[in-house]
Amino acid sequence: MAAIQHVDRDGDDRAHATVSFVASETAGNGATPFDVDQIATELSICKSRLGEATSDPELQGVEIPISVDGVPGRREKRSLCLPPEYTAAHPGRGEHPYKDLRMRRNSALNNGTADAGGVTPGGEPPTSTPEGGARQSAIAEEQAFLDLVTARRDRLTEHLQVELSSEALDALELARQRMLRQQYEELQRAREGLVFGRLDGLDGTVRHVGRVGLRNDGEDSEPLLVDWRAPAARPFYTATAVDPQGQARRRHVRTTGSTVVGVDDEPLDGSMTAELVGEGALLAALDQRRTGVMSTAISTLQREQDDIIRARATGPLVVQGGPGTGKTVVALHRVAYLLFTYRKMAEQAVLVLGPSPRFLQYIGQVLPALGETAVVSATCDTLLADIRVGRDESRLLAEIKGRALWQPALEGYVASLLPGPRELKLRWEGDFYVIDAATVAQALASAVQGRPYHRARAAFAEQLHHLLADAVAEQRETLMNEMEEGFEDILARVDKGMEHDHRPLRTSTGSDVDGLLSEEEIEHLHTRIAENTTIARFVEALWPTLDAETLLGDLLSDRALLARIAPQLSPEELTAVAAEPAPWASSDIPLLDALADLLGDVDAPQPQGEFIADHARRQRGWVYGHVVVDEAQELSEMQWQMVLRRCPSRSITAVGDIDQAEAAHRHTSWAQAVRAAFGDRWTAAALTICYRTPREVMDLTEPVLKKAGSHNAPPRAVRSSGIAPWELMITPAELVGAAAQAVRQLQQRWQGGMVGVIAPADRVAELRAVLSDVPVLTATQSKGLEWDATLLIDPQGIAAEPRGWNGLYVALTRCTQELGQLILTR
Question: Which of 141, 142, 472, 590 has minimal CB crowding within 10 Å?
Fold first, then answer.
C-alpha cells in the first residue's frame, strides 16, 4: 500500500490541511475503479488552493482508497471513497467525496466569480474548503487595499472642500477653483466601485485599476490607484492569454459600497496557478492536468478566444459557441479591446444587446467604468426607451411578426401615406397663389429622397415656403408691369413738373424704383411665410404628423389593410394578427422600431447626460460604432433589422449557439438566421472547447443535436466531473414524490452549492408547489443558468415541446457536476 501526501506551508508554520490517498488492489467500501494518475491530478487541484484560511479538520489525514485495476482505453467511472470511521462520524457524507472535499468547480450563475459569504448565488464552496479559503484570502487582500484607497480618497475630498470654501479673488483663482471642483465631483462620483481591477505584471509589479487615479501623499509618490483611462490601465482591457502584454494575471474586483463582495482571476501567461480564484482557478485547474491533450485544448481555447477578441471590426462576425465555451465573456472582452484600440468607436459608443437583465448586470463586472461611459446595454425589448412589453404571445404570432417581409411592407405602408402631387392653392395677405401640380411633384420627389416621413415633410415645407415667396414676388412684378403702361403719361407729366422743383430728391432702391422685390426683401418674405401659423396648418393638413404606436395599432387591427400591405400572409395568418389584443408583445417592438425609423423624429433630439453613452441611450436613431449581440440565435429577422439600423456600417459581433435556439423562428443554421440582414457578407468563427460542462454530460448531447436538425458537432468537453449521469424510471403518479426525494439527495451531496430542476412547461406548477427551496424552470427559462447539479424531469416531455430537441439540449447542459434524469413511463 502506497501513500502520497500533499502538505502546504507558509512562513509562519500555521496549521494546514493535508490530503493523502492510498492505492490498493481492492478499493474497499464500494469504490469504483479509478485511475491513480487522474486522482492525483484532481487532488493537486485541491492541494494548490490550500491556504491559511483552509485548515479544515475534515480534510486532514483523510485516506481515500483508490483501485488501480483500470483497463487501458476504457473511460473509467470515477468516485472517491472515504474510510468507514469518517463516514460514521459524518452521517450522510461520504456518498460522494466531491461533496466532502468540496472539489467542485465554480457554478456559473455568477459566471464563475468568487463571492463573499458561505453559500453564494453561484454555488461557491464554503470558506472551510481549500477553494473557499483561497477565495476568502483574495477577498480579504482586496478589502485591505480598498480600505486604503478609500481613506486616501476621503482625505483628498476633505482637502478639496477646504480649498473650495475660500472665495476666488481673481480670474486665475477662479480657474483654479473650477479645476478643483471638477476633481472634487469626480472623487464624489467614485464612491461606488472605486476599485474594480488589478494587474499582476510578469516583472512582479501590481497595479490596481479604478475610476480615478490616486497617489500616496507626496507629488513624486508612485500611483496608488491607476485611472482606468490612463495608458498603464490599457492591458486590463486589452490583454489576452495569447498577447498578455507583460501581465501574468488580470483580476476583476466587485464591490458594493466600501465592501469587496467578489474576486475573479484570469491567468494571462500561465505562470500563476496556485493563487488563482474564480474562473481563473478553473482554467488553471484544467492546465494542471497531466495529459498532452489538456494542454493542447487550453492552447486551442486561448487561440480561438484571441482570434475573436482581436478580429477586425469591418463587417459582421458571427461566433458559434456551444455550452461552456465562454462566448459571452469573450464578446465583452472584444468590446473592451475595440474601444481601446479604435478611439473613434468610443466616440460613437458601443451597443451591447443581451438576452435578459441578468446578462446586462454582468456587463458592469466585465466592463467597469468603460461600460458606463461608452457602452449602452439593452435587450431588444428595451431598445425603445418609452415602450414596454405588456403581454406574452403565441409562438405562431411571434414567428409571423418576426419575418423579414414586414420591412418592405412597412416601407410601402408609410410611402402610401405621403401626399400625392396636385395643384396647391395658398392664401397670403388676402391674395390666393397657385402652385401647379408639376412643380409640387418636383418638390415632393426632392423632399422624399433618402428622408424619413417627418424630415421629408420639413424639407417639403421649406421648398413650399420658397415657392410661395417666389409666387408672391412674381405676382407683384406682373401687377407692376400692368400698371406701368397706364401710368406712363402721368409719370411723364410729373417728371416735367419736377424740372422746376429745386427740392432735394429722395434716393430709392428695390421696389421703390421698379416694383420688384430685392433679394433681402424676398428672404424677409420667406421668413415671414415660414413663421406664419396659417401656412403651418396648411402643411399639417396636407402632410399630417404621425405617431408610430397609433399607426401600428391601427394597422395590426385592420385585416383588410394588412392584406393590402402584406399580401404574403395567408388568410389564417391575417386573421390571427388582426385578432391580437392591444398591449404590445415582444414581436411588436421591431415593428414599432421600423415604423419609428420610417417616420423619423418630428424635432431633432437634444443631447442629454454627461457621457456619450447617455446621449446614445436617449436617442432612438443613434448610430453606434459597434454592436455586440449575445444569444444572437434568438433574434428574429425583424430584430436583426433593429441591429442594422443602429449600425449601418455593419461593424457587428454576434455570439450564440444556434443549437440552443428556442425562439419561434425556424432557423437551424446561422446562414438561415442572418441571411435577411447580412446576405452572404459575414464572417463565421467558432469556439470549440467546452471547459465548464463535464465530459460525461456532453457525451449525451450528440444524438439530441441530430434530432434537433443541427449541422454542428457539439463542443469538445475537456473537463470530467467523475460523475456519470444517472436515470430513474418512474410512473407519472410517482413523479412528485420521486422529484422531492431526488432533490433532497442532490442537496445533501452538494451542500453549499446549487441544485436546479428543469421540467416540461405543463409540469412546472405542480413541481414548484412541493420544491419551494430550489428553482423549477422550463428549458427556455434555464438558458444561461448553471448549477452544480441538475435534476431533469421527463426529457421526452421537453422534447415534445416546440423546438423541443433544442430545449432538451439546453436542459442537459445546465450542470457543472452532476446530472440526474427522472424518466416517465407512458
Answer: 141
Query: Parallel, antiparallel, or unpaired for β 776-777 and 755-758?
Result: parallel
State the DSSP code for 125.
Answer: P
Give the confidence band of 446 by pLDDT, cuts at 50, 70, 90: very high
DSSP 544-594: ----HHHHHHHHHT-HHHHHHH-TTS-HHHHHHHHT--SSPPTTHHHHHHH
C-alpha cell at 578: 388582426
Q: Which residues, in sequence order, are CB contacts of 220 under 8 Å at separation 6+?
A: none
CA distance 144 to 142: 5
The predicted model gives 269-297 an average pLDDT of 55
Q: How far apart are CA 249 and CA 265, in angstroms?
A: 7
**Nearest CA among 37, 58, 38, 43 for reference residue 7:** 43
The rounded radius of gyration (Å) of the Cα atoms in the chain is: 36
Average pLDDT over every residue of 157-176: 85
Helices (H) and strands (E) in the chain, counts: 32, 25
Give helix 437-448 / helix 453-497 axis angle, nearest 10°.
130
pLDDT of residue 447: 94
CA torsion 298→300→301→306, rounded to 10°? 120
SS3 415: helix
For the chain, percent of residues with pLDDT exceeding 90 = 43
Q: Report the amino acid identity of residue 537.
A: R
The grid cell for 454 is 417627418
Our CA angle for 355, 358, 361, nearest 5°, is 110
C-alpha cell of residue 88: 460514521
Strand 214-215 relative to strand 223-227: parallel, antiparallel, unpaired? antiparallel
Residue 537, classified by CB atoms within 10 Å of its CB into exposed (0-12), middle (13-18) or buried (19+), is exposed
Closest CA to 394 of 271, 218, 576: 576
Calculate the alpha carbon distances from 608 to 506, 627, 648 in Å. 56, 21, 23
What's the pLDDT tens digit per position in 342-384? 878 888 889 999 877 666 766 666 666 665 678 888 999 999 9
Contact 389, 586 (CB under 8 A): yes
Collapsing DSSP states into helix, strand and coil, what is residue 299?
helix
Q: What are phi and psi of 265, to 5 degrees?
A: -105, 150
pLDDT value of position 28: 35
* pLDDT tens digits, 394-432: 999 999 999 999 999 999 999 999 999 999 999 988 889
Name the pairing type of β-strands 776-777 and 317-321: unpaired
Handedness of CA 659, 660, 664, 665 (dihedral sign): negative
